[in-house]
Hints:
Elements: E1 6-10, H1 14-25, E2 29-33, H2 37-56, H3 64-68, E3 71-74, H4 77-81, E4 86-89, H5 95-108, E5 114-117, H6 124-128, H7 133-136, E6 139-144, E7 153-158, H8 164-176, E8 180-183, H9 193-209, H10 215-230, H11 235-242, H12 246-264, H13 273-286, H14 292-320
Parallel strand pairs: 1-2, 1-4, 2-3, 4-5, 5-6, 7-8
Antiparallel strand pairs: 6-7
Amino acid sequence: MSDGQSVAVIGAGSIGVAFAVVFAATGWSVRITDPDERVRARVPESVGDRLRMLHGAGLMHDHPSVAAARVTAVPDVSAAATGAAVALECGPEQLTVKREIFGELARVAPTDALLCSSSSAIAPGRIAEPLPPEVAARVLVAHPANPPFLLPVIELVPSARTAPQVLDLARSVFSQTGLRPVTVRREVEGFLFNRLQGAVLREAYCLVRDGVATVQDIDDVVRLGLGRRWSIIGPFEGVDLNTQGGIASHALKMGPAYERMGAERGQHDPWTADLVAEVTAQRRTTLPLEDWSDRVAWRDAQLLAHTPLWNAALDARADEAPTGAPIADR
C-alpha cells in the first residue's frame, strides 16, 4: 500500500524537476531519481531556485527551504517508487525507455499507486501494452504544459485499459496541486497541447519557407496579438467574441476562407454544418448570446489590465536590443 502524499518522479530533466516543484510546493513528499548521477546532484539547486522564484512572486505559502526539504534525490526507481502514492515517469520521449520504466514501476511501486507518464505525444495504450491488465488499469498520461508551476493545465489521457476510478483519482491528485486537469477523450498522438501547437508551428514554418514573413514577424504576431488574446480566452471563445452573432456568424463569414487556406496546405477539413452546430451549441451553453456584450466588455477589461505588463516587456526588449536594431513594436 502507498503511504499517502508521496510522489515518485522518474527522470530529473526539466519536466521532472518542474513536477517536483509543483508537488513539493503543495505539501507532497517527493523522491526523484535519474540514471545520471550528475543530473541527480543538480536537483537541490534546480528545485530551490524555482521555489524561491515562486515564493518571491507570492505564489506559494511555505518558505522555500521548507518546501525544498520535501524533495529527496534517490539513486534508482526502486528507492523512488517504494511506498509512493503517485509515480510520474518523466524520461525521454522514447517508447522503449518508457516501457522499461513502467516495467520497473510495475515491480516496485505499490499495487494501488497511480502510474503516470509525462509523454508529450505517445499514447498511453502503447506505453502500457506489455503490462498485465491489473497494472495497465493504473496507467495514464499526465502531460503538463512546461513549466507546470507557471502554466497550470495538465492533459490527462487514459487508455482503453485505464480504470475509470484511476482517471478520477488522477483528476483529484492534480487538482490538489493547483493544476487544471483536462481529459483527452481519445488516444491521439500529441493529445491537445501539441496538436494545437503543432498546427501553428507547421503554418509558421510554411510562411517562412514561402517568403511571406520573417521568424521575428511571426513571433510578434503571436506574441502581441494571438498570444495576448489566448492568454485570457481560447481560440473558440476568441472568435465567438470577435463577431456579432457569435461563433455561428464567424463560421459563416470566415469558414470558406479557412477551408481555402487548409486546401492550400493539402488539408481538407471543412467546417461542416453539423460540426459548426456542435461547436455553437457548446459555446452557447457556456455563454448565452444575451450575455455576449458583457463578455466582450470583460475581455477588453482583461486585456487592458494586462497592458502595463506587456508594455514593460516591450520596454525591456527595447533596452536589450543592439544599438540600431529595429524594434518592430516601438
